[in-house]
Amino acid sequence: MRTLALALTAVALSTAPALADDDDDGEPDYEPLPKLSLAFGVQGHGTRIGGRSEGGFGPTMEAAYGRGRWQYVLEGSLATSGLNDWTTPGLETEITGRLVRGSLGLRWVARQFQTGSSGAIELLLLSGLGIQHFNLEDERTTSSAKLTRPEITVGFAIQGRSFRKPRLAFRIDMRAAFTPSDSESALVSCSGKCMSESGSSTGFLTGIALAW
Amino acid sequence: MVKTTLVVLAALTATARAHPPVDDDYYEEPPPPDDGDDDDSPTFNMFGFDMGIGGMSVQGTRMLAMSIGLSTEHPVFKRTRVFGEYDWLWLMSRDTDAQARAGTDVMVPRPEDHATGHRAGLGLRRELKGKGMGSARLFLDGELGGSVALINDNRTGVAVVPAAFAGVRVGYDLYSRSDDSPSRTFETGISMRVLVMPDGVGAVFGIGMFWGN
Q: Is 0.80 topped by the overall pTM?
């Protein structure tokens, strides 16, 4: 919990310099985000389960409602999931499965560099609250396990956006993901080799997306 | 005749000394000598993000560190900026057994021994070389500063790791052609820093993008 609180504090502090000049007096107008938009992309993730590294990638999609510089985002993704050591070849991964995750988030245009009147390169700050659901299977013991846990994500994205029809945007994002420790509920995934974790387990999410 | 001429010239000189010429509205200052650098580039308050990967020494253990963070800069002189930055860190320690098995000196991380942390830094950035090209500008900057990291290792607990750093950053600025653009410049750069910590020396390679208002 302490790490989660620290993470939220860090987000608040990091947005402060950008918020400082977010008044309307004499400020140039930001091109507002589209009212409704859909995005499709590919997302990679790396987390920890029971103290072991877990990672995978897969498709993601989102629907967003925009209001000025803010965007409210509903996001869902499906991804592969594999637990192994750094030196284990991918094809020899013994604990595999899939991850389904969904989240509700906020996105804010912190900076906007307009390239003429047709588009812009933007800095977005992101945060989200979501759920991760794992279905894992140990090929050595043929045992399986399910794990559901909440997540908090914070991060940023760089986005190239066209202001003219068809108003497409291309985005690359990078987020830190915080989840509670879960060694007890994921013993199958580490086959008795779980490491003790304290506080929260942290990972990352990164992806590319095309938005319309 | 000669004596008279000399006296008149001396008198004119004295008059000129007593009354320096009034400013001429049409007089133009000569341009400063061209030192080869483009001094006309504007300066901005910058805000953006950076990502890095490198090695850190934490409580005597050499660790692979990856970071993402936000950074803000303010120009204090024409070519000097003060910057502050915050990074979130992921760290993993070296697996010496795996390295021995693989017969390599390249660092092989041990993911089951891991740490996370916060790092705050403050420094100065000075342009060493710059060249403007229309609406773009290439630069080579030097950096000097210090940072403090608060690191939570799953085996050894919490550690505070101060560091001093020096490095270089190379990249380019783009200037917007739109007068209405909220950010007038967009900067992309890569950086290389050497960190000096109480337990050893590390290095960080990073990439960053910044928007200037």
A: no
